[in-house]
Design brief:
Layout: H1 10-24, H2 26-38, H3 42-45, H4 50-54, E1 57-61, E2 68-72, H5 75-87, H6 109-123, H7 131-142, H8 147-153, H9 159-165, H10 170-179
């Protein structure tokens, strides 16, 4: 599996969504926007039904971990849901494709991965489907959120996993020695 990074600035997060819209269409930009707000794995994200999303709270069993989760959707995620519902009122899935060979099926992991990778290349970033989760984790961390809370949001077993996951580097650790100098 390819290692991908978080998108680490709000400007790049928004630019990424705009470039997805421009080059691949609204389904990809909507998935990015929703995904960075819900922090789900692509395998769970693509299977969300329109009906389930419209409730405002996702209650699901994660495919990878088999853990039960309850995720309240924030205003940004709900605006994506309402937009998708308005654009495609008869879709069963929130991110459903309309092509003939995949009629009534959710978007494929492969097509999302390819679109994200290509737009990441345009921006000089290593981006994939997992970057959505990593981006929320990094955003929380850079805003000063406790690593334990980020760990819970991402449903990680321990904080060490979360620190590696969000891309906390040795340079980040080294800078702490300068930033938090205790003077006498």
């Amino acid at each position: 599996m390819q290692v991908v990074d978080a998108v680490k600035s709000k400007g790049e997060i928004k630019k990424f969504a705009c470039l997805l819209e421009k080059h691949y269409g609204s389904i990809y930009s909507h998935m990015w926007i929703f995904g960075v707000n819900a922090a789900l794995r692509i395998s769970d994200l693509r299977l969300i039904t329109m009906k389930h999303a419209l409730t405002g709270t996702l209650i699901l069993k994660e495919g990878k971990t088999n853990k039960r989760r309850s995720i309240p959707l924030n205003d940004t995620a709900m605006s994506v849901v309402r937009c998708r519902q308005k654009l495609h009122p008869h879709h069963n899935y929130l991110f459903q494709v309309d092509c003939n060979r995949a009629k009534n099926k959710p978007i494929s992991r492969q097509s999302v991965s390819a679109a994200f990778m290509e737009v990441g290349n345009i921006l000089g970033l290593k981006v994939g489907t997992h970057s959505m989760r990593k981006t929320l984790g990094w955003t929380m961390y850079s805003a000063g959120e406790r690593i334990e809370r980020i760990c819970k949001v991402l449903n990680h077993k321990d904080s060490g996993v979360t620190m590696r996951y969000i891309g906390l580097t040795q340079a980040d650790i080294d800078s702490a020695y300068q930033e938090y100098e205790i003077r006498f």
